[in-house]
Amino acid sequence: MATPKEMLTTWDKVQFGAVLPSFEDPEHKKRSKFHSYNYSVADWRVEKPVFNRDLCIDCDFCWVSCPDSCFIVEEVVNKRGKKQAKIVGINYNLCKGCGVCVEVCPTPIKSLLMFPEYVDNDEALKQWPKKD
Amino acid sequence: MKNITNLKEFACTPDRFQGGHRLCPGCAHSMIVREVVNATDDDLVISTATGCLEVCSAIYPYTSWDVSWIHIGFENAAAAISGAEAMYKALSKKDKLYNEDRRIKFVAFGGDGGTYDIGFQSLSGAAERGHDFLYVCLDNENYANTGGQRSSATPLGAHTSTTPRGRVSYGEKQRKKDLTMIMAAHGCPYVATAIPSTKHWKDLATKAAKAISTVGPTFINALSPCTTEWKFKPEETTEIADLAVETCAFPLYEIEDGHKLRITYRPKQKIPIEEYLSRQGRFAHLFKPENKWIIEEWQKNVDEYWDYLQRREEAGV
Amino acid sequence: MAQKYELKSKEVWDGNMAAAHALRQAQVDVVAAYPITPSTPIVQNYAQFLADGYVDGEFVMVESEHSAMSACVGAAAAGGRVATATSSQGYALMVEVLYQASGMRLPIVMTVVNRALASPLNIHGDHSDLYLGRDAGWIHLIANNPQEAYDMTLCAFKIAEDERVRLPVTTNQDGFLVSHTAQVVKPLQDEDAYKFIGEYKPLNPMLDTKNPVTYGAQTEEEWHFEHKANQHKALMDSPAVIKEVFDEFEKISGRKYNLVETYKLDDADIALVLMGSAYETAILAVDKAREEGIKVGLLMPRVFRPFPYNEVAEKLKNVKAVAALDRSAPMGTTGALYNEVAGALAANGQSAIMTNYIYGLGGRDTTVEHILDVIKETNENAKAGKRVTDLQGFINLRGPKLSFN
Fold it and tell me: Among partner residues A2, A19, A27, which is closest to C222 by beta-carbon distance?
């Protein structure tokens, strides 16, 4: 849990009242160095979810149930002119590998599967189960 | 009130509770928190009681929050938020608000320890005083942050580190306190139960949206299955939550104005309670022959409570 | 807009009314409080001001002192002026949150009416509650009479909210002896009082939701020490601002306050150190003793925290013997004021003979005669050039003599 070296400061330079600002640039929502978004919990994982865009139906079950806000979403407009979320990837800095996303993925062949951490994502996609 | 239609649209909400926190993998707390804070487009000021959520989302020099947030102590999340809400009222009266163009809503989070037990007095006080805020209890039925001790939310027969199963003990001796009804009895304009689940995501999000937009003290009791202390695999979190609802161990309902009860989900076929209990290590000992009576007792309690809810709904009281 | 309260140049107020008027004049944004004897009238008076339109802030009557201070912390972090009042058991219930308020550097003002701590239960004045909060990271100001209770409360806001300080402040007055004793108080007019305190200056307000902030993060072993040291530095540096505020207050009120108050100390051979209403009793005793030829003076830390140890030592540098009078049960050692003064003298290489007296617990009367006895005993030590009296004595205690050496 140690603080990364570059974040350690001395007694005279600690945050006043231990108050932490969420944003460095609030107007443009640029998160500050104090935001855990900029911290990595990747080393908690032994297995990682791999996302197969080709199979995804954008039900967004993974997005809503991810405890670590890992799913990267792009706002797109559907055929009926309504905005909808398109899952475009996983933020592996934030993912702890719990596997909930895989569990809730409803596609016949899952569009999310767990693989050992050391397996390359491209390799994982090649190993994806095929339709019988 | 934010119009929550479908998940595709809801998922366009920019997350205001971010990852990089240190909650356990598969933790239900953050699933619930994300849904709650995403259920409004208003600005938020949040207080959080000491507990897993607090300890894991604000470890100096990091914060996981994109909204103003405060943690003071274990027993005072409701008092803290009532102070902040009072300041908002005072500054609006005096024309001294920081951002005139923003509407601010107030939310407090606490675990069952910080809500059912040590924080109950301050919650009761804040509710009675009528502050405009939503209190969300992240009910994982034990003091998970300190290693799984029993709380007054711990259900009958559960093994916890202070009600361990042993040669002469079957674990927790008491039934879970019915906090949701107690909050309804305060006359809160809106109270509800909820779970984190893909099947019931809209139930939670809509309840949160409703609660946040309701003026006055509102309360949501969200069951938060705890992979670490209930002892199930991290990926099973939402499945366990679903089983709690399908067995009626934790029914989904809402109560308006302290008495108008509405069941928001009715299982097609109520599943036997064993299906729920058997999936959790904390209840494993109940399946020994000598503890069979506890499971029977559980089923009886669940049936009676479900029946009670249905009758209340039907009677409109 | 709050209505102006018409005040005469002289009012007859007890300490509670004086403190309540100071809160009203500060136009506090949020007062969150819980009633407790003997500070209850402060919040009652304040409630009446609100009911009569003299206050437009929020007044939150919470369900406990713990929640009172918690709501104060929430309100102060939200970004505005905050105050409360309490005593004794209520203060004790708040203690956890006192540390949080100071750690978050929130400039909350608390008007404390000092009272004993149970058990056994007692509603009268002593300094047990003040001593309980002495390490909580707050600035503690002492008032000996209703006028000072009023003046200190006005100064408290200005000190607390100064950018160089940003720490919570208590003002202390003795239960009943000050809080319920009506005396002539010369108040400032509302506009002068408010102008003196000034507008609240926001710092990291949670309600500025365009720029969200996190309060109350956890700092474990790699950060906690640095934060506490930083906070301690702010307290240690605060006397400069306190002096500035006192000077400015003198300009508008004509009343002069100091970090350390003294009475006839300049030519004194011996000194008594004490604080609170008994200081005024001691003034009478000093005058009497001087008539008898004993050159005695008094010293009182106006500011109990941060303790002005160098100023105390400087003022006491010419005395031969010092008696420190503590109005709190010392429970296993010498009294806190004794320890502070002894430490201050030792740190400056001074060797006045020091003794300790415990007095006035639970509102026990301490008269001019009692203090005269202390003066005479202390004078014995000065004359002998060594301690010939007990290290710790007890004033006006019934029964066989109790003392420790």
Answer: A2
